[in-house]
Batch of 3 targets.
Target 1
Amino acid sequence: MEKRVYINMNLCTSCRSCAAACAAGHQGQGHLKHGHIQEKASVPLHCRHCDEPLCLNVCPQKAIKKDENGTIVRMRNLCVGCKSCMMSCPFGVMLPYSTWHTSPKCDLCADRLAEGKEPRCVATCTSGALVFEELATIEKKYRRTAEGGRYFTRFTLPR
């Protein structure tokens, strides 16, 4: 079962409660980045936990692995903060700063997943813009188009 965080950009209010929850749950080091769309909206950018992650392939320390659920996990004890993963990510979701000599990366709140809970960002999203569902359900439920093997969500910008 592969679950992912889906962002409905039509519902996001840019409140950043997701980022605050992420930082609070990771000893003050948030793993969530925000992007700006035409200076009209700010939306959370999550790791997409790719089928064939470039970050995993470029890591010289082998500090990134893919677990049995398809989650891309960074092992902090092996990461040296070289930022190769950040430079290789085509979605720009790896954070550009490093703390504790590691590059921060979304881990889908592995501690909460082990308890059967959803990631912190989803649990605190007040607008319902973030959902955590199986990949197959997300693809059926939300209109998506495939271009070159990657999925892009259709959305409208707030006026």
Target 2
Amino acid sequence: MALGWGLVVIGAALAVLYGWIFCAVPPARAKTVVKTLSVASLVLAALALGAPPAITLGLALGSVGDLFLSRSGERSFLAGMAAFAAGH
């Protein structure tokens, strides 16, 4: 159980880092990594803590959406929105 909550803390720390440093910068590899891992760590936490599969899948699709939305271009935007829609 400690692993799951540790992953939640990591996700929260990455979200704060993203908001503090990367939120207003143009697309970059570091921005993509931080944005995606902030939610991907929650996916791993959900698995470790035994969350329902639908919650875990929704988080995973949200992480994929963040990956696409951190990149520039219409295709990335549409793919990100599709992932978020599927996650919801």
Target 3
Amino acid sequence: MKISARNVFEGKVQNVTKGAVNAEVTLALTGGEHIVSIITNSSIDSLGLSEGRTAYAIIKANEVIVGKGVDGSKLSARNVLAGEVISSHDGAVNSEVAIKLAGGATVIASITRVSVHALGLQKGVKVSAIVNASNVLIGV
């Protein structure tokens, strides 16, 4: 299967916490980062998710928020992945920003060109890729 999402990260299920309807899944990526997803309990069951299982976190580029100086800040988003801008390509309205995480994975963000310039996002700038857990799909 091929998908249009720009961000697909392989990891091992570290934890599954079921609630009444939804569950929280934490994937440990090979580079040491963790990605948290909120999916339904029925999805947990149909995917056969359990600790130690290989799975994929899938995030569309337009779901990634880019922030500077947010390390240690209190945010409601469960996924705050620190990294460094490795490239930025401007379009007429949106730009594509590639962020390399410490563990080596690359996150692609699609944000407005105005935001790229307002934040001064250029190669080498330290940033965080921020994603709400409910915007992370899980695949096996």
